[in-house]
Amino acid sequence: MSFTTLDLSYPCPGIARVRLTREREMNTLSLPLIEELNLAIDEVLAARSRVLVITGTGRAFCCGAHLKYFAGPDAIFTERFDTRDRYFDRIARLFDRIEAIGIPVIGAVNGFAMGGGFELALACDFRIFADTARVGLPEAKLGATPGAGGVQKLSRFIGRGKALEWILLARHVDAAEAATHGLAYRVVPAEQVDEESLALADALMRLSPLALAQCKASVHLAGDVDLRSARRFGVEALSALVASADWQEGMAAFVEKRTPNFAPQGKEQD
Fold first, then answer.
1. Of 85, 107, 121, 171, which sits most exposed with the smallest number of CB within 10 A?
2. Residue 195: which domain range?
3. Of these residues, 119, 165, 195, 249, which one is catalytic?
């Protein structure tokens, strides 16, 4: 499938990379980009890829909503409020989908990640930051509020007090400060972001895809339900895993003192 707003490639077996290519528009979330990113995820999962890397081109990873839809000669949402609301909902659903898919997702944050772009990065399981990257939720400057999960995720990741500071002051936060709050897996020179993201993807490729999917689901569930329910999910997940081919392969490799060879799964979780 060919795309006009992004590039989908497979730089290594089992590893898919989506690169947003709306460089002149700072990779903002146009309607075609939202649609194509969903289609790209469909293709990635159909190919049974085991890791997904999302990155951008130019100065930006992604700068969120396409503001030209709201003001100026190209505005389309000034009176079509139902269409506007569906646009916001489509963004939120896309980010929920990225967070929920049963393979690890790496955000290779090559530059600015603002508003919805930061929310996209927060939906990823890992974030590798260029040392020149800047992130933030500056919606208060525009008379808006983050609406695609950024408030909730950032509050959980860095605490309510610091999240209030970043959001209410509409701060632009540099990569080094973001890393001090645990938001970055690595901060590297900008020219090394692609290399570092593929190195992380390669490390994840060596692990059981079934186990990674269950571990990811367990971590996300832990913040959404009570401790007893989360623990019960963990027990059920473990019971399912020990009946799987991945468990058999992992145990055999352990006994035989060799590297396990896990089959790909690439399933989208419900």
1. 85
2. 6-205
3. 119
